[in-house]
Design a protein that fits this description.
With about 140 residues, this protein is mainly α. It has two helices and no strands. α1 packs antiparallel against α2.
Amino acid sequence: MTPKWLTGLVRARQAQEDLAKQQLATAQRLAHRAHARVRYDADRLDSLVQAGAQSNAPAFVAAAVALQAAAATHAAAIRAADEAVTSVDGKRDELGDAARARRTVEEMHDRHVALEHSQLLASAQREHDEVAARVHRSAAEDRG
């Protein structure tokens, strides 16, 4: 019979892998949103440049401030997108580690089951050998 701790360990490793899958999916969604924000900010920045509000001084100053703010927002969005990609990579690595840990425990469980099975077969073979030896001795004593 498989030790209870081994079965519990398999379940724990599976739960760990499931959690890593969820975290990877979350990180991927965040990365997608961050990249969408980068595209939005780039479009906004382009539209401000295309607006060409240089016709008078107040409009020029307002356009320059808006352009600077848009550029800063765009830079922050790029930084957030890069961080999100790094997070996705890290979560993907964690998922791989969790899957490897689960497979290792499952293999340990399988080896334990195979060992129990081979011990059971060996025990049955010994019993058959003992029966055969008794029959052989009994036949030899009857002849002798």
